Amino acid sequence: MAATVLLAEPRGFCAGVEMAIKALTWMVQVFEPPVYCYHEIVHNAAVVAAFEDAGVVFVDDISDVPEGHPVMLSAHGSAPGVVSDAHDRAAVMIDAVCPLVTKVHHEVRRMAEKGYDIIYVGHEGHDEAIGAMAEAPGATQLVDPRVGLAGFSPRDKGGVALLAQTTLGLYEWEGVLADAEERFPDLWTARRSDLCYATTNRQTAIQELASRSDVLLVVGSENSSNTQALVRVGRNAGVPTYRVDSAADIEPAWLDGAEIVGVTAGASAPDQRVQKVIEYVAPTRGVETVRVTAEDEYFPLPPQLRRFMAALQSLVEGGVACRTPGLPGPIENDREFTATEALAILGV
Fold first, then answer.
1. By C-alpha distance, which of 3, 11, 12, 28 is closest to 347?
2. Which CATH number fits domain 99-189: 3.40.1010.20, 3.30.60.50, 1.20.1250.20, 3.90.550.10?
3. Which residues are bridge partners to 57 per DSSP?
4. What is the CATH topology of the domain spanning 16-97+302-345?
5. Alpha-carbon distances, residue 225 vs 68, 124, 153, 291 (angstroms)
6. What are the distances in angstroms from CA 27 to CA 142, 156, 289, 304?
7. Domain topology for 4-13+197-291
8. Quick check: is 128 catalytic?
9. One digit per residue, pLDDT tens: the chain, 348 residues?
10. Burial, 164: exposed, middle or buried (Cβ in 10 Å; 0-12, 13-18, 19+)?
11. Which of 1, 53, 259, 347 has the most CB atoms lying inside 10 A of its own CB?
12. Distance from C-alpha of 200 to C-alpha of 119, rounded to nearest angstrom
């Protein structure tokens, strides 16, 4: 039986996931089901299942959304054609793309307009990679970090830009970056790394756990890129590391002989699942939080949702003659409302 659980901080929901979950929660409270969502709102099985139970239908083709129904686009970012088609089909369309992903979309468009050949470092088939590369498909080439630049050949070695999927591991990005800088002396990269702050912070935290733990447990779903990156970081540090969606996935043999168990979670994993994992481990000496940095990032709800909710609130208040000028409505108090509280409304 484990003596101590080392609990990573930060872990779990990032600001982009917080924003997306809360936005879709507003949608299912305002509209009669079904509410449609293009791709999984975030890559977590428990979150997706909770929204499905609440009447959300997840689709992989925007043409599967019946005309006149509300639709939300996922946090991973969507291709321009998908955004346009969603506008045309939906009665109300809300784009819950993470602002950090939007930044990469802007970079792809800008560098393509300048005539650059773009190296996009990412994972084949990932929703974020598909959406970003669709901004300039003729100028962008996907480079898998496990393969590197072997197959990349630009038209002009002086006009190469390097961009990345935000959920990559630092070790994945840095290897390609070093190779690209050596091959292309005039390489353009963003002044601020494309890698998500939350991804980087969680990888730093698991490195600290790895230096002190016998076993590492990473809570998150199989299709979560940042969760899988955490698993690879732990294993690269030489510590047995296992991904679990929930405590039910833990195999007792993993914990045999482990005095100290490190626990963390990917950026789309609910903290309720983390607490259940700790309960399963049942450390005899309790839980020690290992904090490597503080996170206070906040991303406002999508502007389309804020405008819609403000209009709806005004209509309702006006209809019952109870307008209270100067007092905020629930949408204005969003900074104090968490995704964990939103999921609790759905019974998670």
1. 28
2. 3.40.1010.20
3. 36
4. Rossmann fold (3.40.50)
5. 33, 11, 27, 23
6. 34, 47, 35, 12
7. Cobalt-precorrin-4 Transmethylase; domain 1 (3.40.1010)
8. yes
9. 799 999 999 999 999 999 999 999 999 999 999 999 999 999 999 999 999 999 999 999 999 999 999 999 999 999 999 999 999 999 899 999 999 999 999 999 999 999 999 999 999 999 999 999 999 999 999 999 988 998 788 988 899 999 999 988 888 888 899 999 999 999 999 877 888 999 999 999 999 999 999 999 999 999 998 999 999 999 999 999 999 999 999 999 999 999 999 999 999 999 999 999 999 999 999 999 999 999 999 999 999 998 888 777 766 655 544 455 556 666 777 888 898 888 888 877
10. buried
11. 259
12. 21
Instruction: Indicate if 99-189 has the same CATH topology as 16-97+302-345.
Output: no
Active-site residue identified among 40, 107, 128, 208: 128
Element (H, E) at 273: helix 271-281
Could you give the CA distance from residue 257 to residue 279 in angstroms, rounded to a whole number? 18
Q: Hey, where are the domains in the chain?
A: 4-13+197-291, 16-97+302-345, 99-189
Residue 82 token pair: 């998908």
In the chain, the amino acid numbered 339 is A
Give the residue carrying structure tokens 């990917």.
Answer: 266
Quick count: other Cβ atoms within 10 Å of Cβ 207? 18
What is the model's pTM? 0.87
Q: What is the Cα–Cα distance from 278 to 202, expressed in whole angstroms?
A: 18
Task: Report how far apart, in Å, the C-alpha atoms of 212 and of each of 4, 202, 223, 261 are.
Answer: 11, 16, 28, 9
